[in-house]
UniProtKB/TrEMBL annotation:
SMART domains membership: DHDPS
Superkingdom classification of source: Bacteria
Entry similarity comment: Belongs to the DapA family.
Pfam families named in the record: DHDPS
Keyword terms of this UniProt record: Lyase
Single GO MF descriptor: 4-hydroxy-tetrahydrodipicolinate synthase activity
Active site: Y135, K163
Protein name: Dihydrodipicolinate synthase family protein
Matches recorded under InterPro entries: Aldolase_TIM, DapA-like
Residues annotated for pyruvate binding in this entry: V205
Length: 307
């Protein structure tokens, strides 16, 4: 069982200078996420450079995350494959290694029809007992999970949540109006995080949380407590950083931010390369300005605890 709510970072994968997994820095980052109060860890997403990871590396990351979280929060593995067979294999292997849940993308590279997309999702869901969060991002992946498609997909009991990244936040309300609590809606776009939470999203699959876990969780907890003005103050400061997430170079951007906060390195895996030239200077300026004006956070960790 996963409690589908709260801030779940789509964590970056840390690499050494020799292009192997940097488990020491990975551990430092995950510990910072846990200390800040995140509600789950998502591995191997776009930010995690999933398409460049080998199967044994994915298994290593799952095992290390399970060790660090120690059962306190769920470890969720992303599944993004080109074939249904490959996705089923990846889901089953993640379950075997011990992952607590899955985030499931539509087929990669091929723009499947609605019928094919539903068949793909159902085949994967029916191949595992793990709870699943669907990832709905037609902007980047050109495939939208519509309400009609969701209705079919919810025949699978283990499809329980959706990462809503259409950029149309009213979709949060549409999904909840149609399905109630049957499917838990997370926002998946950093620059729409606060707004989506205010109108009813139960959680936030976040990117800049990788570098700024406390600020991200504080916004969530303050919104949940109805302290919108305090959350908005942090969010206004955060927005120039959050805009670094909606870029093809989001991995490089966020890894630069992790360097600034001391919980990451700039190493990426080719074909990605560190930012160069004017774009690098622009991103460093955004990060530098934010670091100079980093807000003092209110005590947020226990404000929603039931006494």
């Amino acid at each position: 069982m996963i409690k589908w709510e709260g801030v779940m970072p789509a964590v970056t994968t840390k690499f050494t200078n020799d292009d192997t997994l940097d488990l020491a820095m990975f551990e430092k980052n995950i510990k910072a996420q846990i200390d800040a109060g995140v509600h789950g860890i998502i591995l191997g997403g776009t930010l995690g450079e999933a398409s460049t990871l080998e199967q044994d590396e994915k298994e290593t990351l799952i095992k290390k995350s399970l060790e660090l979280t120690d059962g306190k929060i769920p470890v969720i593995m992303n599944v993004a494959e080109q074939s249904t067979k490959g996705a089923i294999g990846a889901a089953q292997q993640a379950e075997k290694v011990g992952a607590n849940g899955l985030m499931l993308l539509p087929p990669m590279r091929y723009k499947s029809t609605d019928y094919e997309t539903v068949a793909y999702f159902k085949a994967v869901a029916n191949s595992t007992t793990l709870p699943i969060m669907l990832y709905n991002n037609p902007v980047d992946y050109k495939i939208e999970v519509t309400l009609d498609m969701m209705e079919e997909l919810l025949e699978c009991d283990n499809i329980q949540a959706i990462k809503e990244s259409t950029r149309d936040i009213t979709n949060v309300i549409r999904i909840q109006n149609k399905f109630g609590d049957r499917i838990k809606v997370f926002t998946g776009v950093d620059t729409l995080g606060l707004e989506s939470l205010v109108i009813g999203a139960v959680g936030w699959v976040a990117g800049l949380v990788c570098a700024y876990p406390a600020e991200t969780v504080a916004i969530y907890e303050l919104v949940k407590a109805g302290r919108i003005d305090e959350a908005l103050k942090i969010y206004r400061w955060f927005m120039p950083l959050l805009e670094l997430d909606i870029s093809p170079q989001l991995v490089q951007n966020i890894k630069l931010a992790e360097v600034a906060t001391g919980i990451g390195t700039e190493n990426v895996r080719a074909p990605r390369l560190p930012l160069q030239g004017a774009e690098r200077e622009r991103v460093l300026k955004v990060i530098g300005t934010a670091m100079k004006n980093r807000p003092e956070l209110p005590e947020y960790k226990n404000i929603n605890s039931v006494v």
